[in-house]
Amino acid sequence: MECPVDLSALTLFSPISRTASSSPPFSDNNDLIRAVPWYKTVASLNLWDPSSLDAVLISSPWALLGLPFLTRKPGFSKSTMIYATEPTVRLGRLMMEELVSMHMEYVRYYGSDKKSGLPDWMNWTELERLQMEWKKIVLGEEKEELNGWMPLYSAGDIKDCIDKIQPLRLGEEACFNGILVIKALSSGLEIGSCNWSIKSPKGSLVYLSSSVFGSAHAMEFDYLPLRGQDIVIFSDFSSLSSMDSDEEITNQCVLRYFIFSLPFLFYNSWVEKNGESEDQSVQKLTGADEIEDEAEKIHFILSCIVDSVKEGGSVLIPSGRYGVIFTLLEHICDFLGSLNIKVPIYIISEATQEILSLTNSLPEWLCKQRQEKLFSGEVLFRHVELIKEGKVTVYPFLYSSDLLEKWKEPCIVISPHWSLRLGSAVQLLRRWHADPKSLLILEEGVHAELALMPFKPVKMKVLQCSFLSGIQMKKVNPLFETLLPKLILLPESLRSRCPIKESELYKIFYYSKNVTTHIPSLKEKLEAYLANDLASQLQPTIFPEKNIAAARLKGKLLLRKGVYFLDLPDKPLNMSIKPSLHWGNVDPTSLLQVLNEKKIDGSILHYENSDFCVRVTKPAEGLIEVKSNKIMISCEDEICSALICEALKSICNRI
Amino acid sequence: MAIECLILGAGQEVGKSCVVAKIGGKQIMFDCGMHMGYSDHRAFPDFSLISPSDISCVVITHFHLDHIGALPYFTEVCGYNGPIYMTYPTKALAPLMLKDYHKIMVDKRGLEEQYSCEHILQCMDKVIPIDIKQTIQVDKDLQIRAYYAGHVIGAAMIYAQAGEETMVYTGDYNMTPDRHLGAAQIDRLQLDLLITESTYATTIRDSKYSREREFLKAVHTCVAAGGKVLIPTFALGRAQRDNSSFFEGLTLQANMYYKMLIGWTSQKIKESYTVRNPFDFKHVCPFERSMINAPGPCILFATPGMLGGGFSLEVFKQWAPSDKNLIALPGYCIAGTVGHKLMSGKPTRVDLEDTQIDVKCQIHQLAFSPHTDSKGIMDLVEFLSPKHVILVHGEKPKMASLKQRIESELGIPCQYPANHETALIPTTKDPKIVASKTFIKNCTSEFNGDERIAEGILIMEKGQNAKFVSEEEFLETIGIEGNAVNAVTFTQCLSLPNKIVSLETEDMILALEKELKKSIKFRKFEISKDCIKLDSITIRICSNNKSCNFGKDEDAEEMAMHLCCSWSIRDDEMARICLSVVKNMESTV
Ligand SMILES: [Zn+2]
Ligand SMILES: [Zn+2]
Ligand SMILES: [Zn+2]
């Protein structure tokens, strides 16, 4: 589950300047690593055998960024299924391609890594020289994360990786091996980001990623279909990072991954809920307040932008959240328009052109208000019109000759984020960092101190704002009350920080990094369907004393879309059906009677409690010993022993 | 159990598609179309045959009027207010079709309106848009899913499951991809019923691309000679590629929709899209009425497709009398339209309500009508292998011959009910059973080829799901007391066959196994150094067994080495086979 890259770790690398030869390099007072960056992904990626993975689920474009590290590993099996939503795949691909292309700037600057093996900065003496805080970023708390560093993948790796993904549409049921039915449901965070519902005959599971109830761009958090499943894995760390900016936590929120093994999914039942309480909790879970909150934030941002622009300063908005940015863009244009301020707005990014048109062609993944635009014949995002009207211009590079010609300040620039180490943000920060009139808008969660280190002294205004990026803490309990799973898995780090109400309705387990959590199996009965053709062949015996009927049944066991199915075998079975099972009471009188019927002479030898012994004399010598739990027959004559056998069978129940 | 299908329209005809299926206790209305050939009450399905409040949901397959034309009437006039589902493109484009139609019928031809423009908007507001392959839980027991149908943008085939019963209603579909849209695509589903369109029940199309080239050549020749080309179209986005084309307003607007709905076109377009949107036409401009008689060549796409009225008919009246001009007709035209008249031989004159028109222009019938041909229908039926087939949306004689083929070639019962008939499709329900987890797990042990075989005992109790259990679990259920006769053990001793008497013990066992395997195939014997086993059957080489009677009578001090056999009663038959094999070893030296 998930395969992200810790982009905050990129801040360790010193940015480079394209104009390095003519102008002095970045201030030397930073000790950032001067080398072609490596990228930090899940440390234990190296520890497991990739061929043992059955399936990989990716919930957002960001969680896709590290996937080529996994798929390019030699042991990665062709049969491993990778699932992601269509927009995730397409946006993720564009982002990775942009990353690779911008990474080339480093390669051009430092020359390509010719020697194999670890780069110089990674040897211990170099690492020891790093500041404590940075060392922690490189190595992790327990120094186990050095393994997570890898050289960047190539464009070819991206293509191979993308080809392996099976893109899913909204709510599409993908069937893995007949065992699992996997379904992506929108999480509301961004276009294409999703939560997962996984159902197997043995139980069902929900993987809850960062989810947003009310979004101004992406389709809302679709939580109703997630109700009544067995297990909910809560993997939304957004509330953690906003509550506490502890280093460890922020790290965890970037690097999230889970490995499930199939036996993990063990039990199942459908919880019927009473309608009233359901309605109440549903009300608590609407996103109206969130949309309002966001609108307020946006309004504040707008006023800051206008202030800067009025003073003649420029505004830089580096961001990786396209939906948020495109919505913000609409607001900026409206706001500036209403104030009659004319400021050029540039979007500078290689991938943007494609992302812009892509976002405008995914109506299925947008929020209701934007879908309405489709139905009333308007464009989904107004950036289409804004670009046409010339209010916003898009350039792939800062140094496009086109742009250099038209460049005017003050201006508003939207650029990709990449921890302020790659792309146009770097050049623009160099240009504006000392200008107190200019404004930098950063998302919360970014380690601003570290990110801005190479641009010191920073005199420009920095606005750090938190866009809604997950489930608000106050909505967690109502959400669980609505979803009503049997069991909830929460991150260990959440235990102390926020009280999740224990409930009679569900159990709570905590999981932590690199530790396998074992989930108890509660379900003993599985459901199956019996093919009519097979059912019609049954020959039931009635057991009146138990008021039941029973029949021997033998058939082909199939798994169809996560449901067991018993069908007639395609080929006739090699063996006949198993011999019958016999049981019943044997008392001396009835035994002698049936022996007589078979013309066997015998007499009772001794009789104690209910145990007795019968000596058979004709047609041959033999002995029948009957004890409370067994009967033993010894007889050297086949014909005689066969007759005894028939006699016994005739007084027993059988099936 | 049965699925009941009331055919409200498109029964043995093309037009006003509408089927109400009672399935698993639910009623689903598939399509709610109008008949373009009529302007009286016959244009709509007869909704008096149903009660709108009984319908669980309405699903519309695509935006063509013969599939959606009566929907505003059904919701706003008849008062249906349950859920309505259609795909995103259909929801986006259907109002354009409906409003356009409304304009023609009411504003231009002055017919009495069945529903107002306001109704169209109110109706469309209630529509719930769905995505391809998205599984929609309409209610607890009813789910529907749309599959890509290829016919026009947003066209869908609908899968419905209610309780244990399943069916697919295809709407119009196309099994071969074209330049703009992909081919219909569906999963291999277990179906009780398939309702399929059968427009081209007996036609087999030749290669589409050669027909297309032929058409483009005709267009070029005509334009080069200064003629005008009229392409009446209703399949939005189809045939819209050529230099110097003109669009009527509707189609231009529809093009903008295409950009947003690019995800619904063919894979090829989708992939090339990010570089260049194929729906940005260079030489396209909106057409104004004044341009009809402007000199010089041009190509005009105009609706409706069958020259049933509206703008395309208006242009036709102007352009038909000149032999320089070219009129293209879609592959299928409904009876009653001018298109239909032109198709039946080449008339020199067409009677319209008020006037007569001399037809001197060339007429080219387009082959790329987006319906599947008979091969496509047969392929789909074979692929899905439903238990029953119903044909709709076709002409009676052709449907009869297709029914013949489906029944004889595929062995699937098939019918083609007329309008207002109800088809009763019997269904059988596979009973639901429960099984213990451990039991299912243990079923892996036995394989038959690559099949996984489960064997056990099914316990049936009134009012409960049958339980599939192992023997042990069964005995527990039944609460067996006293002597379980399975614990009945037979013992018998045999002398060693001479053939093996001189061998080492271990070799004796191997020799016995070899011999037994000749008669008893497909079974695995367990062997140890002095013993061979099959289920409860044990044959042991014994020389010193006090409990054993062998040789006792002979008063032997030293017991002779022999074979001690024992087995439980359930394996009695097999045991006797084994014994006779051992006994016969002497004679088969
Ligand atoms: Zn159609
Ligand atoms: Zn049709
Ligand atoms: Zn013996």
Q: Which consecutive residue ranges of chain A, at least 5 long each, have pLDDT under 50? A: 17-29, 240-283
How many beta strands in the DSSP annotation of chain A? 28
What is the percent of helical residues of chain B? 25-40%
- Largest sheet of chain A, order of strands side by side? 6-7-8-9-10-17-18
Number of helices of chain B: 16
Percent strand of chain B equals 25-35%
**Largest interface pair:** A-B, 91 and 86 residues
Cα-atom radius of gyration of chain B: 37 Å
Largest sheet of chain A: 7 strands, mixed
How does the overall form of chain B come out from the CA principal axes? Answer: elongated
Give the strand order, joined by hyphens, for the main sheet of chain B.
6-5-4-3-2-1-22
Q: What is the second-level CATH architecture of the largest domain in chain A?
A: 3-Layer(aba) Sandwich
Domain count of chain A:
5
Low-confidence stretches of chain B: 235-252, 273-282
Distance between the termini of chain B: 64 Å
In terms of DSSP E residues, the strand content of chain A is 15-25%
Subcellular location (chain B): Nucleus
Family (chain B): Belongs to the metallo-beta-lactamase superfamily. RNA-metabolizing metallo-beta-lactamase-like family. INTS11 subfamily.
Pfam families (chain B): Beta-Casp, Lactamase_B_6, RMMBL
Protein name (chain B): Cleavage and polyadenylation specificity factor subunit 3-II
